[in-house]
Write a sequence for this structure.
């Protein structure tokens, strides 16, 4: 599995992106006007409701015909599996996983389900040079595995570390990720399997714009219960899956350093650099190495700078 | 717009009729059902007999039933419409909470005068009520404390026998 730090740093290749954006300004940068589908659907995930029952994982496994898991979905020992504080990730056998977070000062753990967030302007899609990905008007980001050449660019581009690969054949790796149950449900206006399975209605399915209203209403109506923030409203240019939390989002594993403009900006610029890469490769490589070994606070600064440059 | 005006008129008349009717007192817990069979999850779980009486003896109706059982609403937002504590015709959870999430939140018609925009489905409503209280009162909280799997449920959760 690729090292987490390296992948992040490549993303933060924001820096490389900013260099590129200074050198090669895209002719017309429309990236900031998010022209997402107006009536696209989404899911509001309320972390205050999730009890970590894993019903969503079980439902996804059945709906998407995924392989039999090593342990039954009633086995909660999986929450403690990640070594060195690492949390479980989506992989070729599971399109969604629930992780447990012990938050200091809270007398109970919090749980967070992860899956593809179905970005408004998906970096996976933009970065894919064979156009294997599609954003549907319903909001799903789906892909055509037959077109995929297994280059893994999307894996690096995704700010949420979602796409993974099926290595059933060494010569023919295929991308695997949550598709919002597009084929079987979303297309027909039905909620995805994981949403339907959730006993706590921690997952609410609806139009993205309605979910934002509902989310805001929950924040206002339940004084002091929620953080005053809906994660995904703006992050990475906005995502179809949105999150509410009772604790600061970074305490439950959310990346709060993501820029609000689509990751597409940096990816585009990054890809625009490819020809240049050939000539200045050694210098660039050193740059990436420096980035990879940077400390977090520094990286944050970089990010701010990038946002400013990007404006 | 015209038909909206008519509807509004009807609603007003109904409200007036309702509010001028003689006051109804809160339901007695003794009148409530002994037990309620929850069987709408039968696909994956056996039906659950909810011991309504035990709960009714331990708690007040309003702890679970919003404003419907004749107790006054306490929530600021609810009071705006549900200030008078009449018993509703249907006090059962399934009377208002639909069995499945429809995905059609009632926020899109441009009107600001709609409420209940965030009403959970029956499954969500029951679990949120039960779990909220069971967590606070140290009641049973594990799935299998209340539910037992059907064969389909065991298959879904990949229980190996
Ligand atoms: S979360 Fe990642 S995989 Fe999903 S749409 Fe966004 S960029 Fe693509
Ligand atoms: S939306 Fe469908 S594919 Fe995605 S995690 Fe939920 S059940 Fe799985
Ligand atoms: S089914 Fe719902 S409550 Fe259970 S783990 Fe998934 S999101 Fe949380």
């Amino acid at each position: 599995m690729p090292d987490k730090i390296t992948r992040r740093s490549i993303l933060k290749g924001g820096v490389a992106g900013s260099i590129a954006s200074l050198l090669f300004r895209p002719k017309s940068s429309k990236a900031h006007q998010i022209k997402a589908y107006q009536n696209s659907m989404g899911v509001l995930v309320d972390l205050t409701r999730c009890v970590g029952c894993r019903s969503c994982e079980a439902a996804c496994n059945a709906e998407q015909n995924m392989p039999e898991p090593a342990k039954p979905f009633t086995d909660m020992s999986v929450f403690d599996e990640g070594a060195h504080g690492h949390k479980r990730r989506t992989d070729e056998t599971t399109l969604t996983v629930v992780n447990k977070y012990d938050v200091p000062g809270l007398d109970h753990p919090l749980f967070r389900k992860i899956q593809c967030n179905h970005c408004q302007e998906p970096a996976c899609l933009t970065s894919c040079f064979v156009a294997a990905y599609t954003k549907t008007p319903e909001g799903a980001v789906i892909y055509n595995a037959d077109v995929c050449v297994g280059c893994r660019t999307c894996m690096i581009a995704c700010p949420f570390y979602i796409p993974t690969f099926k290595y059933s054949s060494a010569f023919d790796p295929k991308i695997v990720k949550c598709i919002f149950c597009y084929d079987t449900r979303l297309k027909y206006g039905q909620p995805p399997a994981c949403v339907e399975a959730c006993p706590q209605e921690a997952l609410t399915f609806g139009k993205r714009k309605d979910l934002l209203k509902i989310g805001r209403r929950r924040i206002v109506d339940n004084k002091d219960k929620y953080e005053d923030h809906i994660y995904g409203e703006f992050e990475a240019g906005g995502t179809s899956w949105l999150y509410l939390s009772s604790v600061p989002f970074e305490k439950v594993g959310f990346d709060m350093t993501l820029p609000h403009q689509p990751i597409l900006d940096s990816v585009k610029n990054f890809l625009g650099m490819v020809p240049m890469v050939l000539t200045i490769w050694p210098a660039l490589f050193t740059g990436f190495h420096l980035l990879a070994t940077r400390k977090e606070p520094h990286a944050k600064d970089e990010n701010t700078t990038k946002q400013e440059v990007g404006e | 717009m015209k038909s909206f005006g008519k509807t509004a008129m009807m609603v007003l008349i109904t409200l007036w009729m309702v509010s001028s009717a003689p006051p109804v007192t809160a339901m007695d817990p003794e009148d409530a059902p002994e037990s309620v069979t929850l069987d709408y999850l039968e696909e994956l779980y056996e039906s659950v007999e909810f011991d309504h009486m035990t709960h009714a003896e331990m708690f007040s109706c309003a702890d679970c039933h919003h404003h419907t059982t004749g107790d006054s609403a306490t929530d600021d937002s609810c009071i705006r419409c549900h200030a008078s504590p009449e018993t509703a015709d249907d006090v059962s959870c399934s009377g208002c909470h639909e069995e499945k999430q429809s995905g059609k939140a009632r926020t899109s018609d441009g009107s600001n005068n709609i409420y209940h925009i965030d009403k959970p489905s029956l499954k969500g409503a029951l679990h949120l009520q039960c779990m909220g209280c069971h967590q606070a009162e140290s009641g049973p909280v594990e799935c299998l404390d209340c539910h037992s799997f059907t064969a389909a449920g065991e298959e879904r959760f990949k229980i190996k026998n």
User: Anything to note?
Assistant: The longest strand of chain A covers residues 41-46.
